[in-house]
Amino acid sequence: MKLELVRPTLELKKKALAYRQEHFDYDERVINGSELFDQIDSYDEWLDKVNKNSNAETVDPNWVVTDTFFAVDREHDCIVGMIDLRHTLNDFLKNFGHSGYSVRPSERNKGYASEMLRQLLDVARAANMPELLLSVAKSNEASIKTIIKNGGVYHRSFEYDGELADIYRIEL
After folding, report:
1. Among 63, 115, 121, 111, which residue's Cα sits nearest to residue 88?
2. Mean pLDDT of all residues belonging to the chain
3. Long-range CB contacts (< 8 A, 24+ apart) of 52-56?
4. pLDDT on residue 101
5. Of 70, 52, 82, which is closest to residue 12 (Cα–Cα)?
6. Is 26 within a domain?
7. Contact call for residues 8 and 34 (beta carbons, < 8 A)
8. For residue 27, what are the CA distances in angstroms to 20, 23, 30, 38, 116?
9. Which of 30, 50, 163, 166 is most buried by its number of CB atoms within 10 A?
C-alpha cells in the first residue's frame, strides 16, 4: 500500500471534490475528519480555513489548532480518505477527541483507515502530544477495530444525539 498523508492544496481540488461527491452519492452527508468539507460550497474557502486553523496565530478563536490531511493512494493517484489531528481539546471536542477520519465508500475494508491512523500517530508524536483520544459510535465496528489495531484502549463512554459512543485512548 502506497498511502501518503498530504495537506490539502489547490492542485488537489478536482480530486477532493470527487472524493466528497462520492460520499454524497452514497447518501453520506457527514465526512468525518474533513474540517467541515461536507458543509462548505467553495473548496477555495475551505482550503483557506484549513490553512488558517493549522496555525496557532490564525486559528479560529472558537476552534483548536488542527492539521488536516488527505490520504492519497499514490499507486492509483486518488484520494481515498481524510483525517485530522486536533492538537488540543476544547469543551466541545472533549467527547469527540483529537482526530476524526473517513474513507471513500468504494475503498473501505482495504486497510486504509488503519494505515491513515498509524501515520497520524507519527504526526502527533512529532507534535509532542502525550496521547490521542478518539471517539467512535458503539455501532461502528470497523472504526473500533482500526483504533484497537493502533493501540487504542477503552477509556469511557458517552451519549451524543441519542447514540452511545466510546472514547479510546492511544498513548504516544
Report:
1. 63
2. 96
3. 54/7
4. 98
5. 70
6. yes
7. no
8. 11, 6, 9, 12, 23
9. 50
In a domain, 165, yes or no: no
Q: Give the cell for residue 130.
A: 502525550
What's the pLDDT at 1?
73
| DSSP one-letter string for the chain | --EEEE---GGGHHHHHHHHHHHHHTT----TTSTTTTT-S-HHHHHHHHHHHTSTTTS-TTS--EEEEEEEETTTTEEEEEEEEESS--TGGGGTBS--EEE-GGGTTSSHHHHHHHHHHHHHHHTT-SEEEEEEETT-HHHHHHHHHTT-EEEEEEEETTEEEEEEEEE-
Q: Count how many residues are written for the chain.
A: 172
Is residue 40 one of the residues assigned to a domain?
yes
Q: Output the nine-digit C-alpha cell for 22.
A: 462520492
Q: What is the pLDDT of residues 96-138, one digit of tens each?
A: 999 999 999 999 999 999 999 999 999 999 999 999 999 999 9
Q: Is the pLDDT of residue 85 over 80?
A: yes
State how far the Cα of 52 lies from the Cα of 122, in Å rounded to an integer: 22
Backbone angles phi, psi at 18, to 5 degrees: -65, -40
Which amino acid, one-letter code, is at 53? N
Domain count, the chain: 1
Q: What are phi and psi of 163, to 5 degrees?
A: -115, 140
On whether residue 157 sits in a domain, the answer given is no
